[in-house]
Amino acid sequence: MTTAIVCAYSPVGRAALEGLLEAGIEVSALYTYPQAADEGWFEAPAAVAARHGIPVRMEANFNADSVFEAIRAASPDLLLSFYFREMIQARFLALPRLGAYNLHGSLLPAYRGRAPINWVLVKGEPETGVTLHAMTPKPDDGDIYAQARITIDWDETALSLTMKAAAAGGALVRATIPALVAGTARPISQKTLGPSTYFGGRKPADSRLEFSMTVQEAFNQVRAVADPWPNAFLESRSHCLRVPWALPAAEGCPPGHFSARPEGVLLGFADGALRLHALRQDDCRSERPTDHAVWLRGLDIPEFRL
Question: Which of 93, 184, 175, 186 lies closest to 139, judged by CA?
């Protein structure tokens, strides 16, 4: 039976691991991470491994010599990375008999780098996907062996898009790995697919809402980091307010102002307004528009009255 060492985390990593097992691959070990307290919204790959009796390894430094020696001793046919957080050193990539492959959350060569699901939402893309490609020492480099396209709905969030990517990634692994094992999968050079784009990891400041944004840009910012991600935020010198959810409004409001209406609070941007559906201050969430207005006044945002 074909054997694999799997490095995986996140809902996408969990689904890809399940797809690999459904393809009949024997997983010799899973390298992963402890699940944080605020990540209980998804089942971790370690839980899947436990159900199947797969040894689980959680290493502080995956690229350490001890890990390298352990994987070399296991002599896997495949080394697979499914949303693993660390760049795997080149010496590891030469170990597996059938190669080393990575599952990336975009249609490469577009959106190389970290947090592709968040970035495609920020940029307002209508489509993204998942890509299974050969690993090289460079991030998200190497020939492509399979891709699946994913339509991005107008109100898509990072959570809903992550779950779409998980389903697509699991199916892609299940369908493609047997062809890699059989030697029938045909690689496609990323260089033939057009120019690449790269985005780094998102910093907290990347989620700030600016009143110079268009309504669509502000909405994209909100949905890209909606719960359970840290939310988009408004900031003053003294404190900030987080915006878990908001939608484009039919009514207008001057940029940089808010307007308290019976049906909710409007927040004005360059070409229109967002209607706030939730606002959070100091980890306290309120659904009451009256609270929203009070909090916005506390940020020194001027009120627009009809």
Answer: 93
* Distance in angstroms (rounded) separating the CA atoms of residues 13 and 102: 11
Q: Rg of the chain's alpha carbons, rounded to an integer?
A: 22
Parse the chain into domains and list their residue ranges: 3-199, 205-298
Would you call the peptide bond into 302 cis, given omega within 30 degrees of 0 as the criterion? no
- pLDDT tens digits along 233-279: 998 766 788 999 999 999 989 999 999 888 789 999 999 999 999 88
**Separation between Cα atoms, residue 98 and residue 79, nearest integer Å:** 8
pLDDT in tens, 242-253: 999 999 999 989
How many Å apart are CA 268 and CA 261, to the nearest integer?
13
Query: 118 with 229: CB under 8 angstroms?
Result: yes
Domain spanning 3-199: CATH superfamily: Formyl transferase, N-terminal domain (3.40.50.170)
Architecture category of domain 205-298 in CATH = Roll (3.10)
Here the tokens at position 54 are: 């797969």
